[in-house]
Amino acid sequence: MSSWNSGCGCGCGGTSFRPTTMTARVLEVQCCSLLVCDCDTCQQVQVNTDDACCYRVGDCLCIHYNGAMTNSLPPQISATCIHRR
Question: Which of the residues 9, 21, 35, 58 could staple to 28 if both were Cys, CB 3.0 to 4.6 A apart?
């Protein structure tokens, strides 16, 4: 679910990311992260957030992030805002 465009429009040839929202169900809660299942792709994703302890296994969340996702297992994103659905 990585959302990147080749070229950021400034002529540098770099990448730019667009704000993205993921709808996901919480599978596991850790100190500073959540393991979630993306409802659109059924992919497990680690969501890095200082507010992880506010959520519980089974919660359905809307997770806003900058569109960047690591190429790791599981992929990771850093949430800018999370709210329950």
Answer: 35
